[in-house]
Design brief:
Low-confidence stretches of chain A: none
Radius of gyration of chain B: 22 Å
Distance between the termini of chain B: 52 Å
Distance between the termini of chain A: 102 Å
Largest interface: A-B, 46 and 47 residues
Structural class of chain B: mainly alpha
Order of helices and strands of chain B: HHEEHHHHHHHHHHHHHHEEHHH
Number of strands of chain A: 2
Number of strands of chain B: 4
Shape of chain A: globular
Oligomer: heterodimer
Strand order of the largest sheet of chain A: 1-2
Number of helices of chain B: 19
Number of domains of chain B: 1
Order of helices and strands of chain A: HHEEHHHHHHHHHHHHHHHHHHHHHHHH
Strand content of chain B: under 5%
Helix content of chain B: over 70%
Low-confidence stretches of chain B: none
Largest sheet of chain A: 2 strands, antiparallel
Strand content of chain A: under 5%
Number of helices of chain A: 26
Mean pLDDT of chain A: 88
Shape of chain B: globular
């Protein structure tokens, strides 16, 4: 199967072309084409995972093949396939979630005029994302990195008649451009020294290179890419707004796969990020702080999709933190489980939105009765996210906490534990408000169709059980395949297991007291901590700061430049023109048009010339 | 003897012109069809030449040589190498699509197409000439019809813009002419015989003290056309005033004459001179890139946005040239091609909108994607190319330029590393994204505006430019080796010459 890996990104790309150019008119056929292509890609991915379990490729001995995309003297750019357990895990996650999201979308997007276009975009996205996953070099990574950004842009702005959607997609693209700027500079620095983009060659060359300052610079620059793509502080502002896109898109792109590309890049280029202490520290702290910032903001938001967007940002922060403290296994493991339960949460939210046409959680309530499947799958997702034993999130989050603790990063450990508490609180705040409580008047919700609920059930299954593959309960698991340098089987740390469980339960309990049982008044709390609430509700005013910088600084400079161009530069050149013309106007008086005058001038000239010629002959001078 | 394909490319538009002269002015459709046929033949021949070019052999191919004024060493001598061949193809594509973009022209149609074809003959001539005399001659042939085309068929302040453009270009070309004559005389003294043959002139060893002033003349002369800041203002004004097809040719091809001339008649003859002046070019081109993009951000007229975006994008070309290494100049030529296609696409689309809506004002035009989805898709592809999205032609070009400039080790003013300039230029991609997406958002997205419900989407022949140009952007973006390999064949000897030249410090 590994030799057929190239088909995985190619098939959805073909589906995209076929839908756009041939079968756009036929809605169901378009959807089926996209789903069929994805299904085959998924099957191949499963085959690859199977072969890896058989030992077909390991982290130390990956399978790599490529063709030259551009070959100049001194510059060789490859289009390649690199399959190792890391890529295989990611391939499985992406194809699996993409397939389920596509099936779900058949129900969710039913009756939408742009149905076929939607599926073509999803196919293009899947192709780009899978191309990114199998990349064997930084250039290819960057190439598809931008293309997934494009798809994200197109899909956030899918409802392009909504001004808020087109504002949001522009914001997403431009914020990501800052990341791309750093990323590009980083890989240029790498090219400058090592003369290659290839991951394998760089992994060999970097440890032998000892210019620390340079590696620090290159590492941090490359890391700016993941900061933007994985919505980490300070380039996170685009992700909450990205929720303007259709909900299946939020599940696929802005929760499970594309935003995880940043984490994947750090894992892929782990050698670079761990060659210097400083870079690893930056990765860990950016992740840790983002996790905290996002979690605090999520505490007070009232839009269900935005709550989950901040939750995603927070969980991605976790993953980066794990990578930063040195555990590739923990970070990638959490990426995998998170993809399942966060996609589940988003699709469930989509099911709710589909039924109620609302997104503000305080305008809903009591949906437990009318939407049982959605309710219980959401609860499973929330429990997994909160890290309750024995669901998937428990195992993966635990590994991150253990990694931070054993590496001696106690501050990060404390911070991550606090975040675990907040996560449990805000998730169940949402669950209790939306599914428990009283139904508001005029709410006529009903359960979603099967195409939507079946993916929910499948994802719920994975949210419960996928954690075991990486848990200390199994001999050979996730950790035996995906690792850096050598496998690190997890050692159960009961102290951490208990403390994190207690924190999570405390969070859920507090949420129940405030929003379930209502024995603590949410309103009173809000009044009491008004300034903090306002600050959090407005997301620390970071958006406002950026907007101010753009409107007041950037645009004013541009306006000044424009004025300079129109008045100073143009003025000087027009001035030269005017001067010439003025000179011409003066000289014009010589051209009197009178023959006598001309004759006089000619005669005078002749006389002068003759005198001048005659002077030597006369023996003078 | 082989079929003289280059002469055929040169004569195809001229033949079309002669046929049109015989057609009565009221037969507008016939005139347009003739123009389309003439340029279509040119396009087909250009593609044949492009495909038939032997990359392994390299050098000048499809050459023809007929002595003309032997006393002065002037000959009709044509040929193409890896640098000029993409330019010929670019010209052929742009004029072919430009004819279709002018399908709605109804005012003095006959004269319009005559001048258009004359203009494009000149442009073809510049790119295939191997004789400096004809190079300059064709250059002037291209400039003069421009004046008439803008002055008669233009819009917004057309007389002013036409005069401004013509004066800038003529003053510029006067500098270049002085440089060419000076060089001709110098070479004549050195060689012992007179020649305008570019290859022969290239073998002369020019003194450094001679190269420095003459390269400067070339820099001014061709730099105006690029356009290099601060001599750029003719271009936004000219773009805005010019009719659609002329804008397409003007930004798509004419600007490239400047950059091409700078490489062919500047860097090729005077590598030491180029090394001396490269820092100046590098500094000015950063102004082009960053300042041009920022000015584009605050424009209200769609054509001004594109005009300033051209200033910004051509800055990348100059950066590639200033790098004076393989990647830089490969990228510069590739960017000339890519920008030509992209900007032609933009002008074709804006022309389409303007023709129907009679305004180009951003903010007045809103939500056009509802009424003109195909135009919106085209604009989106052009915009994405403009901001350097991978998979489209411009990305590869810009990437090469960035690598070229980034890997250059040079320090300006004793402290400013060349790499810093490169970083500033790369930052241009962020600003470009801002202004491009801003235009797309305001003009094409948002709620449906009933004011524009009468606008019809592009259809029939109007689709030709959109389809052909988008296809070109995507083809060379996905398979860049089709373009870059050809260019590289032409650039390698040039770089060998630059590398062999004495290392002299730059001006700064």
């Amino acid at each position: 199967m590994i030799e057929n890996a190239w088909l995985i990104p190619v098939l959805p790309a073909v589906a995209f072309v076929v839908i756009v150019f041939l079968i756009r008119q036929f809605k169901m056929l378009s959807a089926l084409t996209a789903i069929a292509a994805m299904a085959v890609s998924f099957i191949i991915s499963v085959g690859i995972v199977w072969e890896i379990i058989q030992g077909g490729a390991t982290m130390k001995k990956p399978v790599e093949y490529f063709v030259n995309w551009l070959d100049l003297p001194g510059l060789n750019i490859q289009a390649g396939i690199l399959i190792d357990p890391l890529a295989a895990a990611m391939l499985f996650v992406v194809t699996f979630v993409a397939l389920l999201v596509m099936i779900y979308s058949v129900g969710y997007m039913h009756g939408d005029p742009g149905f076929s276009v939607f599926f073509s975009y999803l196919s293009l996205f899947s192709a780009s994302m899978l191309g990114l996953v199998v990349a064997n070099n930084y250039f290819q990574m960057f190439f598809f990195w931008e293309l997934v950004g494009l798809c994200s842009y197109l899909l956030i702005g899918y409802y392009f008649h909504k001004p808020s959607a087109v504002q949001a997609n522009k914001k997403a693209f431009i914020t990501n451009r800052w990341g791309d700027f750093g990323f590009m500079l980083g890989i240029f620095f790498l090219f400058l020294v090592f003369g290659t983009f290839n991951f394998g060659e760089l992994a060999k060359a970097i440890p032998k290179y000892d210019n620390v300052a340079f590696l620090t610079l290159a590492g941090i620059l490359v890391f700016i890419g993941p900061i933007a793509k994985s919505a980490q502080f300070p380039l996170h502002v685009w992700l909450p707004d990205a929720m303007e896109g259709p909900t299946p898109v939020s599940a696929l792109i802005h929760a499970a796969t594309m935003v995880a590309a940043g984490v994947y890049l750090v894992a892929r280029g782990f050698v670079l990020f761990h060659s210097v202490e400083t870079v690893a520290l930056v990765v860990a702290w950016v992740g840790g702080l983002s996790a905290l910032i996002a979690a605090t903001i999520a505490l007070v938001q009232d839009d269900c999709k935005r709550i989950m967007a901040f939750s995603t940002m927070s969980q991605l922060g976790y993953m980066l933190m794990a990578l930063g403290v040195g555990s590739l296994t923990a970070g990638m493991f959490h990426l995998t489980t998170h993809a399942f339960f966060k996609a589940l949460m988003f699709l469930a939210a989509g099911s709710v939105i589909h039924a109620t046409h609302k997104q503000n959680i305080f305008e809903m309530g009591g949906l437990r009765k009318s939407m049982p499947i959605t309710t219980w799958t959401t609860v499973i997702g929330a429990l997994a996210l909160a890290g309750i034993f024995p669901l998937a999130g428990f195992w993966s989050k635990d590994e991150i906490l253990v990694a931070a603790y054993t590496e001696g990063a106690y501050a990060l450990f404390g911070l991550a534990s606090l975040v675990a508490f907040m996560t449990a609180f805000y998730m169940f705040r949402m669950v209790f408000v939306v599914f428990w409580g009283d139904e508001p008047e005029g709410q006529h919700a009903h359960e979603s169709p099967l195409t939507m609920t079946i993916p929910l059930i499948i994802l719920a299954f994975f949210s419960i059980f996928s954690g075991f593959i990486g848990s200390p309960l199994v001999e050979t698991g996730f950790f035996s395949y995906v690792y850096y340098k050598y496998p690190h089987p997890p050692e159960p740390n009961y102290m951490i297991m208990i403390s994190s469980t207690v924190l999570a339960l405390a969070g859920i309990g507090l949420a129940w007291l405030i929003y379930g049982k209502k024995s603590i008044s949410a309103e009173a709390l809000k009044q009491r901590f008004q300034p903090i609430h306002t600050l959090l509700y407005n997301k620390f005013y970071i958006d406002e700061l950026y907007l101010w910088l753009f409107d007041k600084v950037m645009l004013n400079i541009s306006t000044a430049f424009n004025w300079n161009d129109r008045h100073i530069v143009d003025g000087i050149f027009d001035g030269i023109g005017d001067l010439t013309r003025a000179a011409g106007a003066r000289l014009r008086f010589i051209h009197t048009g009178s023959l006598q005058n001309y004759a006089l001038v000619i005669f005078a000239a002749v006389v002068i010339i003759m005198l001048w010629m005659a002077v030597p002959a006369l023996g003078g001078i | 003897m082989d079929f003289p394909i280059l002469t055929a490319i040169l004569l195809a538009p001229l033949a079309g012109l002669l046929v049109i002269l015989t057609i009565p002015a009221r037969e507008e459709l016939l005139i347009k069809i003739t123009a389309a046929l003439a340029t279509g033949v040119g396009l087909v021949l250009s593609i044949i030449a492009y495909v038939g070019y032997d990359k392994a052999a390299g050098g000048m191919q499809f050459t023809e040589y007929y002595p003309w004024v032997e006393k002065f060493g002037i000959a009709y001598s044509v040929g193409v190498d890896g640098m000029s061949l993409p330019m010929v193809l670019l010209t052929a594509i742009v004029i072919f699509t430009g004819v279709f973009a002018s399908w709605d022209m109804h005012y003095r149609t006959k004269e319009f197409f005559c001048f258009l074809l004359l203009l494009v003959t000149g442009v073809f001539g510049v790119f295939i000439a191997r004789d400096l005399f004809f190079f300059y001659f064709f250059f002037e042939v291209a400039v003069v019809p421009m004046y008439v085309l803008i002055g008669v068929w233009g819009s917004t302040r057309k007389e002013y813009a036409a005069m401004k453009l013509t004066l800038y270009l003529l003053v510029g070309s006067a500098f270049a002419l002085v440089g060419i004559i000076w060089m001709y005389l110098y070479a004549k003294a050195k060689l012992g015989f007179a020649t305008f043959d570019i290859a022969t002139l290239g073998t002369v060893a020019y003194d450094v003290s001679f190269q420095i002033p003459v390269f400067f003349l070339m820099l001014i002369g061709f730099g105006v056309l690029v356009p290099m800041w601060p001599m750029h203002l003719w271009s936004p004004d000219g773009h805005v005033a010019a009719p659609t097809a002329v804008s397409m040719l003007h930004a798509g091809v004419l600007m490239k004459l400047g950059a091409y001339g700078l490489i062919r008649a500047g860097v090729f003859f005077f590598p030491e001179g180029a090394k001396y002046w490269a820092p100046l070019i590098a500094v000015l081109c950063i102004v082009n890139v960053v300042y041009g993009a920022m000015v584009a951000m605050v424009q209200r007229d769609l054509k001004f946005v594109i005009g300033y975006s051209s200033v910004s994008h051509m800055g990348y070309v100059l950066l590639g040239i200033a790098s004076l290494n393989l990647f830089g100049i490969d990228g510069a030529v590739a960017q000339m091609f890519a920008h030509g296609i992209m900007t032609a696409l933009f002008f074709a689309l804006v022309g389409n909108v303007y023709h129907k809506a009679h305004t180009r004002e951003i903010g007045v035009l809103t939500g056009l994607a509802h009424q003109m989805p195909k135009v919106a898709v085209g604009f989106m592809i052009g915009g994405l190319a403009s901001l350097g999205l991978p998979g489209l032609n411009n990305f590869v070009a810009e990437f090469l330029i960035f690598i070229g400039s980034f890997t250059k080790d040079q320090v300006l003013f004793g402290f400013l590393h060349f790499r810093v300039l490169s970083v500033l230029a790369i930052f241009g991609v962020v600003i470009t994204a801002i202004y491009v997406l801003r235009v797309i958002q305001r003009t094409f997205m948002g709620p449906r505006d009933p004011r524009w419900d009468h606008l019809s989407d592009a259809k029939g022949v109007e689709l030709v430019p959109i389809v052909v140009l988008c296809f070109t952007l995507i083809l060379f973006g996905m398979v860049p080796s089709l373009l870059i390999d050809v260019i590289n064949v032409g650039v390698e000897p040039l770089i060998a010459k630059v590398n062999a030249a004495a290392e002299i410090g730059g001006i700064f």
